[in-house]
Design brief:
CATH superfamily: lambda repressor-like DNA-binding domains
Helix content: 40-55%
Shape: elongated
CATH architecture: Orthogonal Bundle
Number of domains: 1
CATH class: Mainly Alpha
Structural class: alpha+beta
Strand order of the largest sheet: 1-2-3
CATH topology: 434 Repressor (Amino-terminal Domain)
Radius of gyration: 17 Å
Number of strands: 3
Largest sheet: 3 strands, antiparallel
């Protein structure tokens, strides 16, 4: 088979074909969804990658790698990111559907907000 006959993972699913997801594929989906959540919150705040990096004691390339799904940060780094984004990070790992969402802190409340049905989140 040459490359012109390849079907993407998504195409095979849409065609109703059985698609086996490798652990690496699932992990990449998590990294991408987390990166999208960081990007969405950063844009919501009107921050540049450099400004977010400064707030989180990181470098701009590190932020770029996270937003691009190229790296998975540690828990301490996620804590610094959430603080820099003035938000709580909610991670919901539930079987086939997983979400990563930054929720803005309420005024004077450092706890997680109630997640509305239409709340912003990124799913893997």
């Amino acid at each position: 088979m040459n490359h012109s006959q390849w079907k993407t993972h998504r195409t095979r699913k849409l065609l109703g074909e059985q698609v086996e997801e490798t652990p690496a594929y699932v992990d990449a989906g998590y990294a991408f969804a987390l990166g999208q959540a960081v990007y969405d919150r950063r844009k919501e705040l009107g921050l540049s990658q450099s400004e977010l990096a400064r707030r989180a004691s990181m470098t701009q390339p590190q932020i770029s790698n996270i937003e691009g799904g190229d790296s998975v940060p540690t828990l301490p780094l996620l804590t610094r990111l959430a603080k820099a984004l003035d938000a709580s990070l909610t991670i919901d790992l539930d079987g086939d559907s997983s979400t990563f969402a930054f929720r803005a802190h309420d005024d004077g409340d450092d706890g997680p907000e109630e997640i509305p049905p239409s709340g912003r989140s990124s799913a893997a």
